[in-house]
Specification:
The structure is a homotetramer of 337-residue chains. Chain A folds into two domains: 156 residues, 3-Layer(aba) Sandwich (Rossmann fold); 160 residues, Dihydrodipicolinate Reductase, domain 2 (2-Layer Sandwich). The first copy, chain A, starts with a strand and ends in a 16-residue tail after the last helix. Chain A has a seven-stranded mixed β-sheet. A six-stranded parallel β-sheet of chain A has the order 2-1-3-4-6-5. Chain A has 337 residues and is of the alpha/beta class. Chain A has ten helices and 13 strands. In chain A, helix 1 links the parallel strand 1 and strand 2. Chain A is globular. At the B-D interface, strand 7, strand 8, strand 9, strand 10 and strand 12 of B face strand 7, strand 8, strand 9, strand 10 and strand 12 of D.
């Protein structure tokens, strides 16, 4: 059985990665690759790596262009998804990578985003307890923010196991540059980025409420950094131990939480996650320990920000919503070195 | 129909890429991943990106370990393939990425390689005229050198079309660092390579006789450079025009040569190849023109040195030799950005 | 007035950077560049960027080779400085970049380093209160660890101002690859590092006791990461506020602490440190704020790990010890982009 | 004796590098740092690495703002220098990094540049025979193009020595991204460039006539590539030998041509140039040999495109024009690794 998928926002980096995954997906076809200013252009003029698209062109981003789609994937700038979704038929399935419909709490939305809260859809992180079934039963799914995926999957098992305090979680995470999109800006030029690491949005990142909602944390300090690499997020999550916790306890909590999960891998003792190992995949690598001096629990996670952090998880949700094998068209084997 | 494949040299970068491709290949299974000093270790201890291999371990590199393989892929250091091949049954199919069996001329071998010439196998570049059929009919195939793939595919159409002279071809090509392997050396350290470009083996690269043999060139000056990127080869090939040749003539010669080829793409006018577009693929990008000042023909090609330059072409040959679809398990869509 | 300087460990990256700074220093000359296995080789064979050394060669690392030096700079592997220092005349000034003589507490030494504690020298961080004068009056100075420089300078002003708690400090810091030295190892190969971020020594970094000693912190969780760049450290330091602390309070504490300091720059509001801005310098960039969700104070610092993190601070100390202008031969202007 | 220098185009990368060099120059002071849209802004808002400029701001680019300058350095987009120069007093010395006044032949100008030819100034490459004296005697100097510096210095000694033919020279050169400036463009984003090499302006680069004029070459095919590094040019220059030429002959021709030159270094046999070794310097590294298969002479040169390729040579020319030591404020020691 093959389904038709439309992509809104296909000229961006996340949209391009969706197109890449769908081009080699055994059961999903791209019926429309929607863009705005690029509508009408060759897909390969914007994404020269997507050889399979040959002479195909971007379509406009309209309900008409997407009419034949069984499912619409939206990789639009934050705030634009709600308006488009409102124009699509209620029965047309949607996975939205934008932040518009992730938060349950309107006040949390208003604290970090402009404009009114658009409502809440099913949260698209299948590895959370009960969430896989909820996604499969939904027509509207709000996929997870890139830093949020990496941080929630590292943090929640600690809280669920009761070994970490939900208060005073500290997260420092670094992302590759594709997370900042492909609109030209001076600070994203190769000349500026190569050889450089620097923080941004310090003290107020918009993924904080989403991480709290999905992990159960009560307070999070999160500092993001831009790293000189095209892809990848590495998130270092530290939390206070609730008692006498060992590295083995941390490892066991992670292993238990992800037993049987295809895309999440708790590494062997002594191995630590590397973004390179997740390049091009929907995989998550995790490892944890306890700090010698402070007794804090430290868990590090690595993902591909365009994979499990964006296009990969979106295709994973689409597979679930359409009744396909969850891993169809997705890999856990990184393109390395 | 599924076939069993053994890999000799699976702990190197090219071997790791073969394992990656086979892990997601619909009709080929890895029956043994042979190594030397790493035999007995977890595959993921050496290749932490190959999540699918879980708890599997490297085997020794012996005929016994490979006994159940329908086909053996060798990614061994140059000079070691011949000895191993001699121990394998005559009917067991082999694709060898080493240089041992590429050259027809023993004198050419001796001019660039140590030790005696081991003989000649079918040359594993399916896009050459007649070669696809020869490979499909062979049990022993010698795959192509990484620089050679990029250069031959750029050069031969010019000579076949009679628009370029076979004399005085000049090639300057840059490779990512994975082409130099994963044995630790100071000049390959990240600290040394990032921000650096430098030439090596200037004036005497061992791929020259192979390029001449497969392209028909009479004389080649080839200078390789090490580039600060993990993968990719970009080859700039220039040749003297035989007469009044235009950019359109060059483009037409390339298009004609690769009409219908799945992995070779002659770009649209104005687009030039980029290694990034071929990252993780078996694809080749080509573009050409005529130099304004000198009248020389210039053709640039881009490949992934571990893809079409190594593991990709090897899997492509294996597919042909086993009667599978030539593109099975291979993609043309690069992992970019 | 010109002084003679000998360098022990001149074939490593830190030693090479010392040679670079001394080559263009107006009042310091290199009388001997000591090495072990490289003794007798051309300096430019190991450091091809140090053009000014022309046909000079490395000397052995012996008291005889260093006899004419007014001051000896040691950039040896941790644990080797003490043995060499014991052989040098008591009046010969020494700046040691090794960890051997940094710690006051023998128990702290033993918790993180092998071998017995060698004793304590003047701690070589001139920007700490009173330390400039102590260094100028010393013949033996123990320079600061690279992560320690970046972290102490960010943290101590918060504790001195009483706005941050010394308990439960959390530090996540990323370093360029030159911090790991130039001995060839697989995990430091360019192929492995480019595109990759990964943590190491998680939960137990040897700079923790040094940071506590020099900053007054009571408990520190520190996680270091390897970043895909040749140089630079970015340290994100978070600490609990002691009361109702604002971003302006944090900024004011930093400004007050470094008023008049030549090498430390607290950035304008809205600007955050970048390792690129400190490339090739002895400069430190700082900026801070208060986290919106958690109320934690966040201060980020950037240095060149081979500059203020190693060779730069060593030359700064040498200048002080010899009565030269503190900034002689050192710059605050980064080589960027 | 100290002189006042004004910089026009100080907000670009080349202009920023001029500011960096002048900040640490013992005898030149920056009296005005002129910009257009950035006039009035802090210099460190655009160049956060130039710590020494503190609270200084960009000035407008006008004769009034530059009135007190003994010498004006222009790093403007090609075509803008002539208009500004026409407004400055005839006695005010100018070094122009733009192409406007480099070419002697108006037809050559018109073949590669838009607009009318503005006339010819003294060519600012002091290492050419007789040129050092010409520059010192000039009030108007046209500095050399970045690819031109690297290529001319590699090529001319071969032609002067009569060992290479001026016909059919083939050049392939790669540049770091700073050569493309700091105006934001999608193809220059870090996401696009890291991991990528690609050619541009294939077959028609504007530096070709300049190289021919200054080297004596009759015909040049030049292909430039963009490399994933912030700085550096590596130029591979090949030319047909005029007879039976050996590697020793090539080496000897280079050594003879640059005997006594402070900034040009012909490497020892076996060493080849690397851009990393020239990072942040005004140095040139050269090495050559003869190709085994074709007999072509191959010479490779490395420079910092912002150093000897731009700001370094401009300061070198300014030193000569003002009667200062030629190397004042310039180094030959690269910032590496």
């Amino acid at each position: 059985m093959t389904y038709q998928v439309a992509v809104a926002g296909a000229s961006g980096y996340a949209g391009g990665e969706v197109l890449r995954l769908l081009a080699d997906h055994p059961q999903l076809d791209v019926v429309a690759a929607g863009a705005h200013s690029n509508a009408g252009e060759y897909i390969t003029a914007v994404h020269p790596h997507l050889t399979a698209y040959g002479d195909r062109r971007f379509t406009p981003t309209t309900p008409e262009a997407f009419a034949e789609a069984d499912l619409v994937i939206m990789t639009l700038p934050h705030g634009q998804s709600a308006a488009l979704a409102a124009q699509l038929p209620a029965g047309q399935k949607i996975v939205d990578l934008g932040a518009d419909h992730r938060l349950e709490d309107a006040a949390a939305w208003e604290a970090y985003y402009p404009g009114p809260h658009a409502g809440t859809w099913t949260y698209g992180l299948p590895e959370l307890p009960g969430q896989r079934e909820a996604i499969a039963a939904s027509t509207r799914v709000a996929a997870t923010g890139c830093y949020a995926v990496a941080t929630i999957l590292a943090l929640r098992p600690l809280l669920d196991a009761g070994i970490a305090s939900p208060e005073d979680v500290v997260v420092v995470a670094a992302s590759g540059t594709s997370g900042a999109g492909n609109a030209p800006k001076k600070n994203l030029l190769a000349s500026e980025v190569m050889g450089a690491m620097s923080p941004y949005k310090v003290g107020a990142h918009q993924h904080v409420p989403e991480i709290k909602q999905a992990s159960g944390a009560a307070s999070i300090s999160m500092t993001p950094l831009l790293a000189p690499m095209p892809r990848g997020i590495i998130s270092t999550v530290t939390a206070k131990a609730t008692g006498d916790v060992t590295a083995a306890d941390v490892h066991a909590a992670l292993v238990k939480a992800y037993d049987g999960e295809h895309f999440v891998r708790v590494l062997r003792e002594g191995q630590w996650p590397s973004t390179a190992s997740t390049f091009g995949t929907n995989a998550v690598q995790l490892q944890g320990t306890v700090d010698k001096d402070s007794g804090r629990i430290i868990v590090t996670s690595a993902i591909d920000n365009l994979g499990k952090g964006a296009a990969g998880q979106v295709v994973q949700c689409a597979n679930l919503m359409l009744g396909l094998p969850e891993a169809a068209g997705l890999t856990v084997n990184g393109v390395a070195p």
